[in-house]
Amino acid sequence: MLSLAIIGRLFTAVVLLMAVWLAFRPDLARGRGGKVFAFAILFLLPILATWGGGTEQMETSKQTRFCLSCHVMTDFGRSLYYDDPGYLPAAHYQNRRIPRDQACYACHSGYTYFGGVKSKWRGLRHVYVQYFGNVPRPNEIRLYSPFPNATCLHCHEGARTFEEKSAHHRDAELLNRVRSGTQSCMSSGCHDIIHEVAGINEGTFWKETP
Amino acid sequence: MMPAERFESRTRISGILIAAGLLVQSATHFWVHPLAFLTFLIIGAPLVAIGVFTFLYSLLMERN
Lengths: 210, 64
Known about the structure:
The structure holds 2 protein chains of 2 kinds.
Chain A (H helix, E strand, L loop, with lengths): L3 H21 L6 H30 L3 H4 L6 H5 L9 H7 L8 H6 L6 H18 L16 H8 L3 H5 L9 H7 L30
Helix pairs in contact in A: 1-2
Chain B lengths: L2 H26 L5 H30 L1
């Protein structure tokens, strides 16, 4: 069965051909009927095709391979394959706690109304640095702001394994502090082993990065 | 230039711009990379937008 993406591409190709046709035969736009025809080909359909194309681009930009297409991200991609459940992103990726094809996006975009837009805006800055700035080494890359607990709680809040985990009840107020954001999930002694790309060459891996 | 010829000339330009924009947009779908996203955003979509506005302008001018 044809996927939506294929249908969208076919639609764009048809609109493209019709626009070319009208460019070579502008006399077809004469008269009332011709103008309605031209209005469809040179206004309605191109806008629809561009809107569909833009939506596909936005979806593509959520893909893990999109984020890893820049060389500087390669080690972060490899870190998803650490053969050690202590590594937070690796454990999430390997156990399918996040969709593998949208692994970066699942954790590094805010689950707010404009979360995706903010991610794209940051992405534009990354492209600028990639081509016009000083590209940092992978182990020098830092988040712009501390990782928000809300991103973790988006999935884990209410989950039995989260609520009943003994470590989460080490003190009575721990979960309240996590929920209010006064204590990070990634605090020292908690989930504090993240991508750890500095030692990636000494690591052992579940699989080689595809 | 007669008004009808001017309208046809603008329609032709509009068709070419829209076709070029859609061609660029189509090409970006075969490349998963941030530069493809930017090419869509900075070249493909504006070409279509300029083509659409050229056509609307030609309709308005012909009416006047």
